[in-house]
Amino acid sequence: MSPTHTAVTTPAALEPCGREDHPDCGIRDLQDRIGDKWSVFVIVELASGPRRFRELQRAVDGISQRMLTLTVRRLERDGLVLRTAYPTVPAQVDYRLTETGAGLTHLVKALADWSLAHRAVISDARRAYDESHPDHDIR
Length: 139
What we know:
This protein has helices at residues 27-34, 39-46, 53-59, 65-77, 99-132, and strands at 51-52, 81-86, 92-97. It is mainly alpha-helical.
């Protein structure tokens, strides 16, 4: 699609969750992982190669040591990140995306690209909503 494309985009054909014959479509599991505050940032950082813990912590602005520990453990548990401990003194550990985790980077990039492309539209919509609904503070 060209940058000047202005036709209305039709939504993708997605099956709704929650139907009796469709109790869990897998979106919930994915949303639990990448919908948290930090996982996407960690995945983005690991997309360019292995990182040591402190490198990740410096790269992901605002994340605490505890939250980074929990985030990489959850990503490791889900098979998206591989933790490698090296037998050195002091011990060295690095984190890298698994093949499954690397496959997720295309979706994360598409989401980031979409967010950047629609930032102004969303900002304008929020401003218009807030102005027309002054008593509804949903931020």
